[in-house]
Structure formats: C-alpha cells, structure tokens
# Entry
Amino acid sequence: MKLVGAFTREIGRGELYDRALAQAMPYSFYEYEDSLFEKNQYEQWGELQSYFGFEYNSISSERIKILQKEAPEVLIPLYHQMIGDLVEMKNRSSYKQAARLLKKLRTVYKKLKRVPEWEEFFGKLLVRTKRLRAFHEECTRSKLIEEA
# Structure
C-alpha cells in the first residue's frame, strides 16, 4: 500500500489510492479511515466505523470534537450503536458508560434541533429496558430521567 500511495501521489491521482484502500479492506482499514477523515468525507467514515463495529474508546477525542463541530449527524448512528452494545453487556459499569453516551447523544440531537427524535428514541429505549433496574438507576443518576 505504501508503494501504491507513493505512486498515486507522484502522478496526482489520489482517487486511485482510495480505491486501492477500499479494495484491500479489511487489511487497509486504518489507512482508509484516516484517508476518509482527512478528506472530510465524514459520512463514508461513519459508515465504515459502523460496519466494522465502532468502539467509542478507539476514536480520539480530537476527532470526536471535529465531528461535533463539522458533522454532528455522523455521530448519531455511531452513538446509537455503541449505546445498544453497552446496554447488552448488562453490567453496572457499561450502564454508566451508556448513560454518559446518552447525554452526549442528547446534546447532538439538541444541536441539530431534533429533540422530538431524541425523546422518541429515549422513550423506546426505556420501554425496551424496563426490566433493567440498574440501567434506569444510572439514567436517573445522570439526570436523563426526571424523578417524579
């Protein structure tokens, strides 16, 4: 891939390098995702992350900040996927992480002025997890659920 990258830069055909990276997946995952992010192709980058099993801890905080400023809509499906995975782990520490991500997701929805979608998603999540008392406690502790 280094040879292909050097050659395509030399002849000025960067799209050939991207095509080669895409064809060499999954072996070229890290190079390809870096290339997409550097070219501000955030939608494709997000789809790639989602396809290969996005892990919140694997993405640098600088990239998250850039996405929050430039393309917050890319974060929505990634956060949804990670929250679902964390809730499925069914332990207290994963519920805490899920609650933190839910707060970040709520912020993204508010920034995009899509609060009704957030409320619908969160309501369905609470119904789906109604038997997970510890998860509900973490949501209450994080002030996602208002106490009556």
Notes: DSSP finds nine helices and no strands in the chain.
